[in-house]
Write a structure and sequence with these properties.
Elements (H helix, E strand, L loop, with lengths): L13 E7 L12 E7 L8 E5 L9 E5 L7 E8 L5 E4 L3 E3 L7 E11 L8 E7 L6 E6 L15 E5 L18 E3 L5 E4 L5
């Protein structure tokens, strides 16, 4: 004479119907109530074809993969970098890492979670972030606080080439460093076509 019950036999994955009815002291059997439910203890498959889709120098890399399969559907995917914390990234098959990564080697992992909260095996991809071919760091400058109309001023600028490629002055692909002037409201007032 109970109002809760645990089925003792392990049920296979799939749809099941549970029936319950009452029997009184005189042996009279009442009508049965029923409930339909699903057992899903099988995790989704691992994603396949995990690949980076952004250039090697992009420090917020993008990835794509082929969707996992599951009998009752994928709820969301999780991703992590270098055995860090798993993060829910939604039910997607592509993702751009939100945190900028330093130059170096990494391993990204992606796994699926189904609608029964079963977690599948992870796909992993080892990759590297390379130094950008062309990159610049502004070291110092001597910009005057005020430039009068018609006034010509020289502005010494010191730059560091922090990329992996030399800056050729001539040849088929010379490198130019452009400049932008902004006013105090951060509105552009001058766009330079390039410095040599």
């Amino acid at each position: 004479n109970v109002i809760t019950y645990t089925i003792l036999a392990a049920l296979p994955d799939g749809s099941h119907v549970f029936y319950v009815r009452a029997v009184d002291g005189a042996g009279n059997t009442g009508p049965a109530a029923s409930v339909t439910f699903t057992i899903d203890a099988t995790p989704p498959t691992a994603p396949t074809n995990l690949a980076r889709t952004s250039a090697v120098s992009i420090n917020k890399p993008a990835f794509s993969w082929t969707a996992s399969t599951d009998a009752n559907g994928i709820d969301y995917y999780q991703a992590r970098m270098d055995s860090g914390t798993w993060s829910n990234i939604g039910n997607v098959t592509s993702y751009t890492w939100l945190t900028a990564l330093s130059v170096g080697s990494y391993t990204v992992e992606v796994r699926a979670v189904d609608k029964a909260a079963n977690t599948g095996s992870a796909a992993s991809l080892a990759f590297s972030i390379a130094t950008p071919a062309f990159n610049v760091n502004w070291v110092s400058h001597s910009t005057p606080t005020t430039i009068k109309p018609g006034q010509m001023v020289g502005v010494p600028i010191t730059l560091t080439n922090t990329g992996s490629q030399a800056w050729p002055k001539g040849g088929a692909n010379p490198v130019y460093v452009t400049y932008h002037w902004y006013n105090s409201s951060w509105q552009p007032v001058e766009w330079g076509i390039g410095l040599r």
